[in-house]
Amino acid sequence: MTAIRARAEELLRAPVGVRDLALTFEETTASSAEVHVGGPSFFPLILRDVAAATSSVHVNQFGFKRGAIGDAFADALLAKAADGVAVRVVVDGQGSRPDGGSRELYRRLIAGGVDVRVVRATRVRASTQPRAAGGSSIWNLDRLARIDHRKLFAVDGRIGWVGGGGIEDHFNDGRFHDLFVRLTGPVVSQLQLVFLASFRWLGGALQARELDALVPDHEAVADPIPATVLHNAPGPLRPITDAIAQLLDGARETLDVINPYVADRAMVGRIEAAARRGVAVRLFVPGKPNNLMCAFAQRHHHAALLDAGVRILDHPAMLHAKAFVRDREEVLAGTCNLDAWSLSRSFELDVRVRSAAVAAQFDERFSAPAEAVSTPGTAPAGRGARLIGTAAAALSPLL
């Protein structure tokens, strides 16, 4: 914890550059780790934690848009800001549209005292705030092509949420199927540091006196759970990508892969290799994908995966969760897809938990119900489908 606090103090003292975002962490512990599946499950619990906040609410979201669930979160954040709680939000400009379709939502947040910062990956000159905040445009070169795909909530420095769902209605009404992991204990300070680095990089200000609450001492528990935050940031250091490769290569008995965009050839090869060495592999993918190019690229590999013994399961909804479970003892979950953008370019955030109990909880709450409603995946049939798949797979480094 001393190292986390010291790094947080450094972030407050000096300007933060893109290199400061390459954060890596040693394994620490969680006091609790709970898997929550589906928006009707996790959204009310996140809102409950926000409502109970006493010092800070920090949100990093790729997709935070107007709608029933977006307005519910806006109301909750505004209520906390009105109570004097520090509410800070980092969003992606493309994913959240703060100057487009969600302009009114962000006007409300800013007018109510919420500090909103925006990662803009497509504009050479841009403000790090929504237009409603009146921020001036600056050179944006260190943010170009750096999509912020992260989804996290940190409340009072003591509760953290990591998952794949945006604050958007289709994650709450069953169209998109996703999950979040709720964490307490020392690992939350790692999440907090990721947020603080990004917030400061975008020009946000904090007071040194806030750090006692943002990075608190955590009470010891009888059975701490080994846990680590993994953060992919711009540059050659990609801890999540490395961890996924190690997890796939290290599976000995069982392996569950849950991902909507399985397009990276090397990762697909690792999944196939695991099955060929005798690992019981389940691959959960969307039966109704929203990205056809990634779906064609993925299905190009189905014949080899099925031949190797992988059980491919097509979920009837747009399966959007990103998770891995190895040998019923390790869970990796968060925002990282198995495509080139997530693995190599975007900001991504995952948490790794080493716990047979959490792995069993994951199977009970996600894998078993998902398998019950899924249908067996198949290889492309017909020359046309195979040709399209071959072309999409060739383009996978761009997807």
* Alpha-beta content class: alpha+beta
Poorly predicted tracts of residues: none
Distance between the termini: 38 Å
CATH architecture of the largest domain: 2-Layer Sandwich
CATH topology of the largest domain: Endonuclease, Chain A
Helical residues, percent: 25-40%
The count of domains is 2
Largest sheet, spatial ordering of strands: 1-12-19-18-17-13-14-15-20
Count of discrete alpha- or pi-helical segments spanning 4 or more residues: 14
Average pLDDT reading: 95
CA-based shape: globular
**What's the CATH superfamily of the largest domain, by name?**
Endonuclease Chain A
What is the CATH class designation of the largest domain?
Alpha Beta
Main beta sheet: 9 strands, mixed
- The total beta strand count reads 20
The gyration radius over C-alpha positions equals: 20 Å
Quick tags:
alpha+beta; Endonuclease, Chain A; 20 strands; seven-stranded mixed beta sheet; 2 domains; about 400 residues; about 25% strand; nine-stranded mixed beta sheet
SSE arrangement:
Blueprint: H1 2-13, E1 28-30, E2 32-37, H2 39-51, E3 56-61, H3 68-82, E4 86-92, H4 93-96, H5 103-111, E5 115-119, E6 125-126, E7 138-139, E8 151-155, E9 159-163, E10 176-177, E11 179-184, H6 187-201, H7 211-214, E12 225-232, H8 239-250, E13 254-258, H9 265-276, E14 280-286, H10 292-300, H11 302-308, E15 311-315, E16 318-319, E17 323-326, E18 330-334, H12 340-345, E19 348-354, H13 356-373, E20 375-376, H14 383-394
Parallel strand pairs: 3-4, 4-5, 10-16, 13-14, 14-15
Antiparallel strand pairs: 1-12, 2-11, 3-8, 6-7, 8-9, 9-11, 12-19, 13-17, 15-20, 17-18, 18-19
Helix pairs in contact: 1-6, 2-3, 8-9, 10-14
